[in-house]
Structure prediction request, 331 residues.
Amino acid sequence: MRPSILITRATFPDVTARLQAHFDVEDNPADTPWNRAELTRRLQGKQGVMSTGSERIDAPLLDACPSLKAVCNVGVGYNNIDIAACTARGVLVTNTPDVLTETTADFGFALMMATARRITESERFLRGGGWTRTGIYDMFIGGDVHGATLGILGMGRIGQAIARRGAAGFGMKVIYHNRSRLPEALESACGARYVDKQTLLRKADHLVLVLPYSPSAHHAIGAAELSLMKRSATLTNIARGGIVDDAALAEALRDQTIAAAGLDVFEGEPDIHPDLFTLPNVVLTPHIGSASVRTRLAMAALTAENLIAALGLGACAGQPPTPVNPEVLAS
Ligand code: DGY
Prediction:
């Protein structure tokens, strides 16, 4: 009998077709939102799931879906999944690292530049008919990016790719803070210098957050941290909602204790802290860091490969390319 899988959200038809070659597939091409009860019901009898950050996969769900053997998440982040609960039940988890690194770094850099140079704020002004006089010396003056100090919190693959862009392309002085310091050779390849978190906050002209979410990273940037930043500094978050205390950030932006922020991720997204909508000095985007055609296709294709291999099929049977809890494979 062919294994059965669930694809929770709409995906590329070619990827669905590839999965249909191996599995009985239930999918969601209309991208209809499923609540938890609906998800649990649809997972009955399924051996695998192609999931996204929108679904919480935790112990109660796993216990209610005992046939599940593989949870293959589309995305590098997997804070929606209780890894320990999966491992304890012999459920393999996979993610999609590497394929999105450069695209997400491009986006982080773009968001940081849009924030520093007030791109969306000035566009709104123009579209609203506000531009009636030329030559105004201080119209939408912002902070320079080239030559400035770029601070990176979280120096994994995406952080390193942002560092390389800043150092090599924009002559930026790059400082970073991370749980563990990078080997020296990697630091010099990125043109980045390790500093403690306080120094990072005090010195950065443009601070970019790229750390994974975990309970210990919750509100890593709150009122106390924001108060250490320069008044002229910008903050860009492409990591996860919850890493920044959005209420404290809104207050700092309103009081202009920092200059501006660029946010692609939010606490409780897609709901957004209402104060952020009232502020001109924040650029808001709907969690699209990895959203280029090629990368989204690569992420979906890698997830399919993981799912096929995790359920013991295809050329890499039993050896999914990017497992999160490989110890499950050994047991
Ligand atoms: C990721 O890959 O983690 C992106 O944020 C999409 O969820």
User: Anything to note?
Assistant: Residues 53, 75-77, 100, 289-290 surround (2R)-2,3-dihydroxypropanoic acid (CB under 6 Å).
